Design the sequence.
């Protein structure tokens, strides 16, 4: 399959990229690693007049510390996330979910920023960004602004990014001593998640002090399992207590229907996977 | 049209290409390097896997313009004269192919694994090849071939 024709720009800096996007109006698409955009182009589901390749802009890749925050460049590849010691130490949930993204060849090229900006609710990393309370740093013609993950995912494949803005970094609060688990249910290896659950748990004296749960593919956007998070606070980290508290995991969700699953089945999966993920994250297998 | 310079299997090519041209079509249709097949065309099957600047990549999911200034190795660049690459040799000896369509991608993905993990377990081989599909269901022998190419003893 051959993509539709488009013009191509390869800006050398963030400023040039933003200028190029601003001039193109709504007709441009940003190309980072291309692992979501290229399939869309080949299937002719996207028809940009201009593709703006930001893949070589220096300074947008890599992970650094900024006080109690990790700053992850938007172009950092999944492959690099998996090998980064700072991510391993302070944001293990991100590495755990990234390990389930596609396959090694795709992980070599796909980027964290690209998969968040793509805003696919079936993608693994948007729910993780929600659970981690990440912030997305974007640059536009008016300068820089920071968007909390909970405001970033607006609708199916739609983010709060304006057409002339570029996502440049993801800020993740450092967390040490939290348990985590990403549970992903898929029909075959490398397939999209039918449902995924990203769980972070802080444990105190055998109890769950705080739980943060992100849901993959349970609606048009990634969601937090707010009712279960509230019900889990203060609960002992044992199987039946966690099962009771996670029975509400699908509350407030609006899962879609597709050949993989009905909405009812997705709700069932959300409850089962949330129970498993929270229990594992709480160390109470 | 955009001007690119790409080194493929040791030879540098300068070309004018349409931005929408996929790397796999550039390799096959422009350079005549048909050893890299187009399989599913949807990023799933991995038949078109090549090495791009030292890392495996699905060449149906890369634009030729993105490879500008890069070094590409295809399955056709692995042998040294008459001496096959150890993976090629092992795939032949272990009957790791039936129709052979997935083989170039399997070999390129396995090469990527062995570079990072020179002595993988069978389980690690399976995970490393999860983005490569074989419709002849020949995975058993493919896994054995990769283990054999890594110099490990393999029960036949």
Sequence:
């Amino acid at each position: 399959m051959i993509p539709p024709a488009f013009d191509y720009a390869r800006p050398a800096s963030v400023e040039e990229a933003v200028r190029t996007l601003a001039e193109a109006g709504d007709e441009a698409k940003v190309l980072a690693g291309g692992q979501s955009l290229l399939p869309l182009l080949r299937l002719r589901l996207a028809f940009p007049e201009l593709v703006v390749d930001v893949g070589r802009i220096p300074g947008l890749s890599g992970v650094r510390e900024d006080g109690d925050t990790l700053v992850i460049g938007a172009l950092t590849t999944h492959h690099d996330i998996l090998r980064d010691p700072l991510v391993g130490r302070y944001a293990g949930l991100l590495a755990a979910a990234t390990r389930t993204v596609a396959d090694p060849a795709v992980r070599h090229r796909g980027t964290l920023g690209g998969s968040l900006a793509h805003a696919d609710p079936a993608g693994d990393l948007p729910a993780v960004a929600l659970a981690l309370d990440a912030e997305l740093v974007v640059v536009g013609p008016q300068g820089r602004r920071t968007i909390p993950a909970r405001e970033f995912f607006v609708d199916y494949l739609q983010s709060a990014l304006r057409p002339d803005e570029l996502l440049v970094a993801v800020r993740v609060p450092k967390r040490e001593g939290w348990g985590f688990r990403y549970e992903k249910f898929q029909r075959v290896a490398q397939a999209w998640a039918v449902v995924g659950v990203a769980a972070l748990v802080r444990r105190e004296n055998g109890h769950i002090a705080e739980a943060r749960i992100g849901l993959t593919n349970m609606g048009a956007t990634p969601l937090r399992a707010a009712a279960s998070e509230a019900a889990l606070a203060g609960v002992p980290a044992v199987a039946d207590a966690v099962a009771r508290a996670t029975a509400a995991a699908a509350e407030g969700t609006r899962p879609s229907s597709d050949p993989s699953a009905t909405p009812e089945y997705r709700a069932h999966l959300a409850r089962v996977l949330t129970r498993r993920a929270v229990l594992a994250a709480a160390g109470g297998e | 049209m955009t001007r690119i310079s790409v080194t493929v299997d040791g030879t540098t090519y300068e070309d004018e290409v349409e931005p929408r041209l996929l790397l796999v079509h550039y390799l096959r249709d422009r350079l005549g390097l048909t050893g890299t097949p187009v399989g599913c065309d949807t990023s799933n099957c991995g038949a078109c896997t090549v090495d791009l600047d030292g890392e495996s990549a699905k060449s149906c999911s890369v634009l030729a313009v993105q490879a500008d200034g890069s070094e590409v190795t295809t399955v056709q660049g692995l042998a040294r004269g008459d001496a096959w690459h150890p993976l090629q040799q092992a795939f032949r000896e272990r009957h790791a192919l039936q129709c052979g369509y997935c083989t170039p991608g399997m070999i390129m993905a396995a090469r990527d694994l062995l570079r990072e993990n020179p002595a993988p377990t069978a389980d690690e081989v399976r995970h490393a090849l999860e983005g490569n599909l074989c419709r002849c269901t020949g995975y058993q022998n493919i896994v054995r071939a990769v283990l054999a190419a890594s110099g490990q003893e393999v029960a036949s």
Q: What stands out?
A: DSSP finds five helices and five strands in chain B. Chain B has two domains: 2-77, 86-149.
